[in-house]
Amino acid sequence: MSGLTSATPRTNEYGQAIGPAVPGWSPRALPPRTPIQGRFCRIEPLDPARHADDLIAAFRQATDGRAWTYLTVGPFTDPAEHRAWIEKAAASADPLHHVVIDLASGRAVGTLALMRIDSANGVVEVGHVTFSPLLQRTPISTEAQYLLMKRVFDELGYRRYEWKCDSLNAPSRATAERLGFTYEGLFRQAVVYKGRSRDTAWFSILDSEWPARKAAFERWLSPGNFDEAGRQRRRLGELA
Questions:
Q1: H/E element holding 128?
Q2: What number of helices (H) and strands (E) belong to the chain?
Q3: pLDDT tier for residue 154 given thresholds of 50, 70 and 90
Q4: How confident is the model at residue 198 (pLDDT cuts 50, 70, 90)?
Q5: Domains of the chain
Q6: What angle, rounded to 10 degrees, do the helices at 48-59 and 79-90 form?
Q7: What's residue 229's pLDDT?
Q8: What is the distance between the alpha carbons of residues 5 and 3, in angstroms, rounded to a whole number?
Q9: Is the pLDDT of residue 79 over 80?
């Protein structure tokens, strides 16, 4: 597959080392604005008319603003300000914001986006992951990530899926590793936001790694992995 590398680099006619061949490669399609159905949740394009009220209410469940510390926006204390941001996000093509719908309640409980979409090279990043207290530490949060990965790799045929975060954001780094991303390194002083400097930690999953990651997700998400109270029997990392 395209993500595999050879122990001995190929060489060209000049004896220079070159990367693995990618036979038949062509630019990939842009992510569509269509829903993705799961067992616990549905992912669909952000629509302020249908989702803003639910999202505002969901985030007002938080007792403080810590969920927004490592995001470029928020926290929002004024619902009108929050709604204005939702409207701006929904109008964007890149990042392409999606909302997470809890199938049990039918309500929007968080958002995440595909961004830095490089269809020519088959590379895309998941970002703007903004999960309300109604979504955090639930099977929905894992399934939402899985569904978006499945679209990128299986439906669209991308080669590389990225996760980036503030290097000081310990929960985000832990989540990336739990989801099967590989840490690639640190970009120092990469971003200025909210009046402070950010070193950015980079993670990725390659197309060659996806089949094993996908199998682990599907084993974790299967009904048999949850007891009668909805608690996981085995952790995702145990199934990788």
A1: strand 123-131
A2: 5, 10
A3: very high
A4: very high
A5: 29-239 (3.40.630.30)
A6: 140
A7: 85
A8: 7
A9: yes
